[in-house]
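Async update (no meeting this week)

Hi team, since we skipped the sync, here's where things stand on the single-chain job. The sequence we agreed to prioritize is pasted below, unchanged from the tracker. I ran it this morning and attached the output directly underneath so nobody has to dig for it. Comments welcome in thread, and please keep replies under the output.
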Amino acid sequence: MPVDDRTRLDLHRTLENTLGAEGADALMAHLPPVTWDQVATKDDLDKLATRAEMQVGFAELRGEMQALRADFVEASNRQLKWLITFAAAWTSLLVTAVRLIP
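Output:
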């Protein structure tokens, strides 16, 4: 049975008649403000903590992957520049050699 505000008020009045105002207030203060199926358990909190840890881990992994990608792009660019320079030098040597042949 879901407990709504009206049910809580009725319970408080009954307790007040039985225990007095202070007793009723003290007992009602120990009831959850929502139904029991809405109360978080330790398992719920553990799942949230695990999820948060996973999100942090994935964020760190994304950062590492971006750094690796940047390193890869830099290395690829260096290699491409070297290949272009090598091809240009080799072409110059071949052109010079061909010109020297009578």
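Quick observations from my side:
The chain has two domains: 1-39, 40-102.
The two ends are 106 Å apart (CA to CA).
Reply here if anything looks off.
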